[in-house]
Amino acid sequence: MKNLHHVSIILVAIAMTAWACQKDNTEASLPTPDLSQSHDYLNMKLPANISPFINLAVSFPNYNNSENPLTNDGATLGRVLFYDGHLSKNNLISCGSCHVQAKGFADPVAFSTGFKFGKTTRNSMSIANMSLQRNYFWDRRASNLEEQVMMPVQNHVEMGIEKLGVLPQKLAQVPYYPALFEAAFGDEQVTEERISFALAQYLRSMVSGNSRYDEGIANDFSNFTELEKMGMQLFTDWNSRAGCANCHGGVLFDGWNAENIGLDEDYTDLGEGDGRFKVPSLRNVAVTAPYMHDGRFNTLEEVVEHYNSGVKMNSGLSWALIDSTGQGARRLHLTDFEKKALVAFLKTLTDEQYLKDPKFSDPFR
After folding, report:
1. What is the gyration radius of the CA atoms in the chain, in angstroms?
2. Residue 22 has pLDDT above 70, yes or no
3. SS3 of 297, please?
4. What's the gap between Cα 175 and its chain centre?
5. What's the pTM value of the predicted model, to 2 decimals?
6. Where are the beta strands (DSSP E) in the chain?
7. Which residue ranges form the domains of the chain, and what is each CATH number?
8. 320 and 246 Cβ atoms separated by less than 8 Å
């Protein structure tokens, strides 16, 4: 029995050692990125509804960064970093884990799974045309891409690298990074700034502007069905009963502001404050379910019905959603056909090429 007891202790020790090795160093099991195919990240097809007369750098401050100009080598490095589990504490979670290309770089579940299998408290926002936005996250807490990209890495639920100083040393030990950093920045040195710069370059290159809506601009929307045209009129006409463009306007069908849209009478998550959350872009919205900051709606039909009949009155409700009396939430009274038309229009904002483009795909697969 004594010998059996010693054997049991040894087996437990071996198991615990194996578990510890797997927990702290899964590097050996991680693949090497396939970069055999080169990509042109500088050739971006901008959305067709951008005016040719505007100065992009002035209208969209994140379109470029003079200290971090977009290069093919920088974006290539950023792509590898985006999909690399090494950016999480235990090598299990990458940015791409919660931002799936086929889903418009959103997460098809309400709350994403972090490196310790915990759940985030908000739905992962889709990624597209980040360079044409002025702020990021549901509470708009980041104002530039270089700042934004490192926040999930440091998050104690998402990726767990709470002390960023350890990340450069960690990545410097990964065999494929020295050459990638040298190509992008001139030498092999890995720094926090270079990591953020490369990730920001990659996100800056992720432009989506090849939807059926973009195609329609050139031909007066002759490629639209009558139902889609009706939905577009309901959406874009500010004086229509829907008037979605009051909040979702401009190039990206988004807002640079945050709004309380009457999801609840009392908010547990206050967002930016008073239940206000960033007005997200609706490009590729048909594939980015579930919707809202907490992923409460699974379909576009549910979203449309919320605005039609489900908005709840509260002290912070957006002016656009308050009725003419000023005392209650607005009701659109859309017919079933009109609601169907709105959904049909929203589906024209899908950029199928973007969802399949190899230069934005996972190089580890």
Report:
1. 23
2. no
3. strand
4. 29
5. 0.91
6. 258-259, 277-278
7. 36-209 (1.10.760.10), 212-349 (1.10.760.10)
8. yes
